[in-house]
């Protein structure tokens, strides 16, 4: 990898096994690979207040797949009870594959959207299947905050709807799978200023990764794959991603 390239992982679950069991090794390998910032979404458990190095940031959120027992009326209080300053809200959204009624998911999602607006924080979106319903909620909320589409896997037609609302599209190792059909087209056509990268580790390892456990050190190879799709040097893509990230978090 070109030593000038700096990579930013906007979605990595360092707080879950097996990554949390080897944090020092995971972070050392990430830094050696050129990863210079990592955001942990929906961080939970005892590591939420872990003494993280300054290049690791955290987001607060409730995933739609685990929100069945969450009373939307308690979300503001839950947020207030946190022990750290989050850099975003999420991941939150709607998932048609989750074993939680969509109406309840929507209530929890709307409560977190309200938190993001109240505190001026970016919103990390987890969406599977419920594209139009999610887009309608965002349109109703109006612009003003960055929307980050985590591990985007929709069609170009779906992507255009979210792009018109100002969303960023984040691509993960799922982009690199031989079975990927829709996502590569989106990755080629999306405006450069709206691109982000992530690993979603420990999930979604790119097909060439030596183990099934993904980790942030894989991010540069995902970036090189995206750069090749777009026909540009990997360092140019890394610089563009850095600019995009800093448009969301200027102090990154």
UniProtKB/TrEMBL annotation:
Keywords: Hydrolase, Metal-binding. The keyword Metal-binding applies. Coiled coil: none annotated. A divalent metal cation 1 binds at residues 11, 13, 91, 200. A divalent metal cation 2 binds at residues 126, 150. One of its GO terms (cellular component) is cytosol. Gene3D superfamilies: Metal-dependent hydrolases. InterPro entries: DNase_TatD-rel_CS, Metal_Hydrolase, TatD-like. One of its GO terms (molecular function) is hydrolase activity, acting on ester bonds. Signal peptide: none annotated. This is Putative deoxyribonuclease YcfH.
């Amino acid at each position: 990898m070109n030593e000038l390239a700096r990579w930013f992982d906007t979605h990595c679950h360092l707080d879950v096994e097996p990554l949390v069991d080897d944090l020092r090794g995971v972070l050392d390998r990430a830094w050696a690979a050129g990863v210079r910032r990592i955001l942990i979404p929906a961080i939970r458990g005892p590591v939420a207040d872990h003494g993280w190095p300054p290049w690791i940031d955290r987001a607060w959120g409730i995933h739609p797949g685990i929100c069945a027992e969450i009373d939307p009326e308690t979300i503001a209080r839950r947020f207030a009870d946190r022990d750290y300053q989050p850099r975003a809200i999420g991941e939150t959204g709607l998932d048609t594959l989750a074993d939680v009624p969509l109406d309840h998911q929507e209530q929890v999602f709307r409560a977190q959207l309200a938190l993001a607006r109240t505190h001026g924080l970016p919103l990390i979106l987890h969406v599977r299947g419920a594209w139009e319903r999610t887009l309608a909620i965002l349109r109703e909320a109006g612009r003003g905050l960055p929307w980050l589409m985590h591990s985007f896997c929709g069609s170009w037609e779906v992507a255009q709807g979210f792009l018109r609302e100002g969303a960023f599209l984040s691509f993960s190792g799922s982009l690199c799978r031989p079975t990927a059909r829709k996502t590569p087209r989106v990755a080629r056509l999306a405006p450069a200023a709206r691109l982000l990268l992530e690993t979603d580790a420990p999930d979604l390892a790119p097909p060439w990764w030596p183990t099934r456990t993904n980790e942030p050190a894989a991010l540069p190879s995902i970036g090189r794959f995206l750069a090749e799709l777009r026909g540009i040097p990997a360092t140019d893509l890394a610089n563009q991603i850095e600019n995009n990230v800093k448009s969301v978090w200027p102090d990154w």
